[in-house]
Amino acid sequence: MFKLQWLVATLACLTFCIGDNVSYDSNAIIINGERRIIFSGSIHYPRSTEAMWPDLIQKAKDGGLDAIETYIFWDRHEPQRRKYDFSGRLDFIKFFQLIQDAGLYVVMRIGPYVCAEWNYGGFPVWLHNMPGIQLRTNNQVYKNEMQTFTTKIVNMCKQANLFASQGGPIILAQIENEYGNVMTPAYGDAGKAYINWCAQMAESLNIGVPWIMCQQSDAPQPIINTCNGFYCDNFTPNNPKSPKMFTENWVGWFKKWGDKDPYRTAEDVAFSVARFFQSGGIFNNYYMYHGGTNFGRTSGGPFITTSYDYNAPLDEYGNLNQPKWGHLKQLHASIKLGEKILTNGTRSDQNFGSSATLTKFFNPTTGERFCFLSNTDGKNDATIDLQADGKYFVPAWSVSILDGCNKEVYNTAKVNSQTSMFVKEQNEKENAQLSWAWAPEPMKDTLQGNGKFAANLLLEQKRVTVDFSDYFWYMTSVDTNGTSSLQNVTLQVNTKGHVLHAFVNKRYIGSQWGSNGQSFVFEKPVLLKSGTNTITLLSATVGLKNYDAFYDMVPTGIDGGPIYLIGDGNVKTDLSSNLWSYKVGLNGEMKQIYNPMFSQRTNWIALNQKSIGRRMTWYKTSFKTPGGIDPVVLDMQGMGKGQAWVNGQSIGRFWPSFIAGNDSCSATCDYRGAYNPSKCVQNCGNPSQRWYHVPRSFLSSNTNTLILFEEIGGNPQHVSVQTITIGTICANANEGSTLELSCQGGHVISEIQFASYGNPEGKCGSFKQGSWDVTNSALFVEKACIGMESCSIDVSAKSFGLGDATNLSARLVVQALCAQN
Ligand code: GAL
């Protein structure tokens, strides 16, 4: 009996005593009494693979993050009502445990509406068809589903002891997502009631850590309202006792088919973060820290690309995106120097002219000081005289961090981190010439107008397909009865999108899509025969909409049309209430042609001239797994639009024939001035996405099967398997600091292409000697770096053999090459 009591007490203590207490005030997040500022970064677990997680988490930790933030993706976890999936890359519990093992915290944004450029904003599409449901408002059917799912996730976390209150890594949880942006006026009073219900429901789950709501200025207490954007320094939470939190600092932007590559400079992201902490912020989350890949059909829309690289500090494949990753790492370390003062101190501003501000944090107990000195002018640099504390050069649009208020430890516009440039290589002899076979998509039934069910109206696509497939067939027949006005006609289809292919009497007549996946009108002249004619229309979605008030109700497919035949004298025959026959999906999808296990059933034909540029065609090849550990990509150059599978796993939709516009790219990018997604774009005039990530865990140890479905016509002979490898790296460091170079991923420095200690000019790729330098600079660097994965060099006159020379204001720049060890 005594023993039992002891056991119970010990177990209770284990649950209670090892738990972390997470609370907050306006100056700090307080974890077990320790006053903290938190750097966090978004990594969405289904956008990478389990095998990639440990490395991504470690790189986040090395980058100076304290926490990793993720949404929970309802549609993936509950693909059919009450049938759950938490396997493989959906195993968020394992993801959280790995984060904890690495010593980091988790910020769990359940949503379960998530936006996130994710299909249908993360809602399972079956919700849409529930009788009486209205999403994201005060509707009982919806609220039941939301509560059931949220409770399930919370309970799973509780069971695995994942809340900080139980000794786990989760320090904060989010309910809903940016509802405040769309609530008024669209959802009216019901919206307000809904948000109150969300708060109450969340609180009732007793998770023992604070809940947050982002972009919700009326967040009910005690929920903390937080800010999302490119800059949040002007944000104030709705309760003076709440901490000022930046839940989404957009480090770049997402991409749609046809878009250029977004690029937000390291200088500007650092500026945004530094301004946020200068203005009293205590939590910053990078959205995204690793963007990753929208595998399968998970990309949102319409028209979100398969790559979700986001120009994040870790690129799509998990490589360090330098200098962004390194510049932010140094920023975190610099701000952390002041953590105690920032979280315990008072804050006061002193202005120098209209754009320069000195913000002083002062800890009255210890007398310590910590300062931010900002210059928000978009053009003009400033030199600020702080008298006894020194004189500082603050470039335009930058913030200096002054430790002790008298020592510059960092400036957001002075980048000392290395730049890394990656190259794509085709390195397996066996993969040089892939040998392809093809098979036509079986369309006999649909071209003849035979579907699975019929109706006298034009149906909305997702309601019928429940997003089981991108594809939905609309078929009808038209009897001309010898009417001559119906022979030379124009077929007009009004569709809500996203893509339409039309066939008349089994012959293809044309395809079309609207820009950004909007509604469009398809019009093509057709020649009808006398008697019965078959019209076959194939509508395809390209990612379901994920954002805006009532986005879930935005129709897809031909939905009501109208569809007309327009004859001589503009005489219109309305086909909208004809008898339409319907079919969901492709026959190839039903037969799982993409799955090597079943693809034997298909009669594959060796590639021939006839099969190149052919619409609605399957292609198959095999390739050898590239050696090494570098990330693997498919170069899809030459293909049109479709989906690709490696060993039966979908690597996502491809659409390399969609070319980004040729305007508005420029060779230079000025980091100064407010960022927006069309600033500094790159990749004009090229495919908006040419390369597609094939995670190594999708590959076998030797030979792999690649199967493509091509919808609009392409040439697979240009497709190749490549690896992404680090090529040139460059670094720059000023007198008195340390220059660091690193190749990463098992590569070593093989050549120093340029090194100059002096006053070199130019930038990575085109460095030049300045008016003076130390002649053996390169030799010196070679000695320290050749053959090493990383090296660091003390940048001082002494180490470069100039003795105790002072006031040199020299710097060292290096350009090196990395190679496989
Ligand atoms: C926010 C949203 C995120 C993501 C982001 C843009 O509005 O909360 O989920 O969609 O925009 O990338």
Automatic annotation (TrEMBL):
Organism, scientific name: Cucumis melo (Muskmelon)
Pfam families found in the cross-reference section: BetaGal_gal-bd, GHD, Glyco_hydro_35, SUEL_Lectin
GO annotation (BP), single: carbohydrate metabolic process
Entry-linked SUPFAM superfamilies: (Trans)glycosidases, Galactose-binding domain-like
GO molecular function terms noted in the UniProt entry: beta-galactosidase activity; carbohydrate binding
UniProt xrefs under InterPro entries: BetaGal_gal-bd, Galactose-bd-like_sf, GH, GHD, Gly_Hdrlase_35_cat, Glyco_hydro_35_CS, Glycoside_Hdrlase_35, Lectin_gal-bd_dom
Family: Belongs to the glycosyl hydrolase 35 family.
Entry-linked PANTHER family: BETA-GALACTOSIDASE RELATED
Gene3D superfamilies: 2.60.120.740, Galactose-binding domain-like (2.60.120.260), Glycosidases (3.20.20.80)
Domain named SUEL-type lectin: residues: 733-819
Reaction catalysis annotation: Hydrolysis of terminal non-reducing beta-D-galactose residues in beta-D-galactosides
Name listed for the protein in its UniProt record: Beta-galactosidase
Signal peptide annotation: 1-19
Keywords recorded for this protein, A-Z: Glycosidase, Hydrolase, Signal
EC number per UniProt: 3.2.1.23
